[in-house]
UniProtKB/TrEMBL annotation:
Name of this protein: ATP-binding cassette subfamily B protein
GO cellular component assignments: plasma membrane
Sorted UniProt keywords: ATP-binding, Cell membrane, Membrane, Nucleotide-binding, Transmembrane, Transmembrane helix, Transport
Organism annotation: Ureibacillus acetophenoni
Lineage: superkingdom: Bacteria
Source taxonomy: Bacteria, Bacillati, Bacillota, Bacilli, Bacillales
Mode of membrane association: Multi-pass membrane protein
Primary location: membrane
CDD domains, alphabetized: ABC_6TM_Tm287_like
Domain ABC transporter: 338-571
Length: 580
């Protein structure tokens, strides 16, 4: 629990205040029965109105103090709990952002979302309850017991009849609760995952008319969540009345034995009333304690899940190298060059060699087309460049320096990356384009948009560059999204530009205009493409097959040396012929 609850530390002072106020409430709670006993024994029994009045005033005064203490305690408890929740969420978010791609693979997205939302809330609630009642309930119960013993040990002894059973019940509840609630949180992950998948693929679901299927899939996971939650809560449903029954039986025994003691003159009425009062407090506080124990069990399951994230360290995080570790080599000569030397790669936790013995070099300003059938390793190869993953063997050099020896930030600042799937964020077009370079001025944004052939389209939007995209914004076509993604990368003016099949949705004319515009830039380019027409315009082509280099060279060279390339060319010529 340490890693999660260490986030309470900065709030120790308000937490201490809350604790002291809680003790004040507790103290008053414990003194009240004594005063009632005084009112009965010194007032009612001897008919002393003055004593009743005086003790009555003290009672009311203490009740008001307890009320005020309770209100201020709630205020501090809420402040501590919510600040803690805020810090914890931020810490989790930062940690997740620093994950290596390999670590992301270990945590399903839905699981991370639940951890950041529901799990944090569970722990936050328990912290709030702790500052309000967690310590108070058992303390109040045990001190009430002590007070009862001080007043009359013989009668109070009857309160202990059920104690061993109560302790046994609580132990059982905590043990089962932790296991069951861990299962509940896991089920919540599954519900989130199905929901996320369905919403992301909503068009597909509609197009395939899979609404009913998706609904039943959702019902299945939601039902499992319901069953597991019910199972977990059932322990409480069973144990709470059982606890109360035991406690009330003890209370009955106290009343029975106490009335005998009073009638034989061994005890006073006031004493018995006070003990009954304390006994009821023991009962009430214990049931409250049992309720919190359930919440703690749930929070323990949640905090264990968050701990998994917070404890990710070392190889699981992207860590910047210290200046002293960096190689001070001469980078000027090879600026903009990229060299792969016998690079092989296997995804973490898998056996399959996805890239095998890849070697090639491109110079500054050269444009490399990467071709190959689906699954041949094109995206994987590109992912190694900004060090999303590290090669299993072999070396990759950027500007003549091994990518492992670069400061991560510097390396990535040099690379403009356009992933296969165009993703835009909620916000204006301009905000999206400036996303990779916050300090870009409008003329840079506009130039990038012109190069990416999207400027004219943006000009037709109602608010031009201030038009909102994403949820509640304009709906963009696939090609428009692709061009905006390209423009976003171009705004950064990176030395190296990586386009992972990012022009697939562009028509021939637009694509040609895009390459023309990029021709003017002295940018080294990696372009994954399926189209020979595109590949032909590049300086070199790297043809991958099954993760190996099938052929490497210019279009003409590949026509000479690679049968597979010739087949691709022929098949596309046939297509063009058929289309024509
Ligand atoms: N995260 C991953 N974990 C394990 N294996 C993966 C992962 N991503 C991709 N692979 C595997 O690596 C191989 C190469 O995938 P990659 O995405 O690089 O191919 P690609 O040539 O870009 O394909 P496409 O043209 O369809 O995008 C495939 O066999 C794929 O199953």
């Amino acid at each position: 629990m340490k890693t999660v609850y260490s986030y309470v530390k900065p709030y120790w002072l308000p937490a201490l205040f809350a604790f002291i106020l809680m003790l004040t409430e507790l103290f008053i709670e414990l003194v009240q029965p004594l005063i009632i006993a005084k009112i009965i024994d010194d007032g009612i029994v001897v008919n002393d109105i003055e004593a009743i009045k005086n003790w009555g005033i003290v009672l009311v005064f203490l009740a008001i103090v307890a009320l005020i203490a309770g209100i201020i305690n709630s205020y501090f408890a809420a402040h501590v709990a919510h600040s803690f929740g805020f810090d914890l969420r931020n810490a989790l978010f930062s940690k997740i952002q620093a994950f290596t791609m390999a670590t992301y693979l270990k945590f399903p997205t839905s699981g991370l979302i639940t951890r950041l939302t529901n799990d944090v809330t569970q722990v936050q609630n328990v912290l709030f309850m702790s500052l309000r009642i967690l310590v108070r309930a058992p303390l109040s119960a045990s001190l009430s017991l002590v007070m009862a013993f001080i007043i009359n040990p013989k009668i109070a002894l009857f309160l202990l009849i059920g104690a061993p059973i109560v302790v046994g019940f609580l132990y059982f509840m905590v043990k089962k609760g932790i296991t069951y609630f861990a299962q509940v949180q896991w089920r919540l992950d599954r519900v989130n995952r199905v929901l996320q998948e369905c919403l992301q693929a909503i068009r597909l679901v509609k197009a395939y008319m899979r609404n009913e299927y998706e609904s039943s899939r959702f019902q299945q996971v939601a039902n499992s969540l319901k069953l597991d939650t019910t199972r977990a809560l059932r322990i409480m449903e069973f144990i709470m009345p059982a606890l109360l029954l035991i406690m009330n039986l003890s209370l009955l025994a106290v009343i029975w034995f106490g009335s005998i003691e009073v009638s034989t003159g061994n005890a006073q009425v006031g004493e018995l009333v006070a003990i009954i009062n304390y006994a009821m407090r023991v009962t009430g506080n214990f049931s409250m304690f049992a309720f919190i124990i359930i919440a703690i069990a749930r929070a323990k399951a949640s905090s264990d899940r968050m701990k998994e994230v917070l404890l990710v360290d070392g190889n699981g995080l992207e860590v910047e190298k210290s200046e002293s570790e960096l190689k001070n080599d001469n980078l000027i000569e090879e600026i903009g060059t990229v060299r792969f030397e016998k690079v092989s790669f296997t995804y973490p936790n898998t056996e399959l060699l996805v890239l095998s013995d890849i070697s090639f070099e491109i110079k500054q300003g050269e444009k490399l087309a990467i071709m190959g059938e689906t699954g041949s390793g094109k995206t994987t190869l590109l992912n190694l460049l900004p060090r999303f993953y590290e090669p299993t063997s072999g070396k990759i050099f950027v500007n003549g320096r091994n990518v492992l020896d670069w400061q991560l930030e510097e390396l990535r600042a040099m690379i403009g990356f356009v992933p296969q799937k165009s993703l835009l964020f909620t916000g204006s077009i301009q905000e999206n384009l400036k996303w990779g370079k916050q300090d870009a001025i409008f003329s840079e944004v506009r130039l990038a948009a012109e190069q990416a052939q999207i400027h004219e389209t943006v000009e037709t939007f109602p608010n031009k560059y201030d038009t909102r995209v994403g949820q509640k914004g304009v709906n963009l076509s696939g090609g428009q999204k692709q061009r905006l993604s390209i423009a976003r990368a171009l705004v950064r003016k990176s030395r190296i530009l990586v386009l992972d099949d990012s022009t697939s949705a562009l028509d021939v004319k637009t694509e040609a205009a895009l390459w023309d515009a990029l021709e003017e830039e002295n940018t080294t380019m990696f372009v994954v493409t399926q189209k020979v027409r595109t590949a032909k315009t590049m300086d070199k082509i790297l043809l991958l097959h099954d993760g190996k280099v099938e052929a490497y060279g210019t279009h003409d060279e590949l026509l000479q040396i690679s049968e597979r390339y010739r087949q691709i060319v022929e098949s596309q010529q046939e297509q063009v012929g058929e289309e024509g």
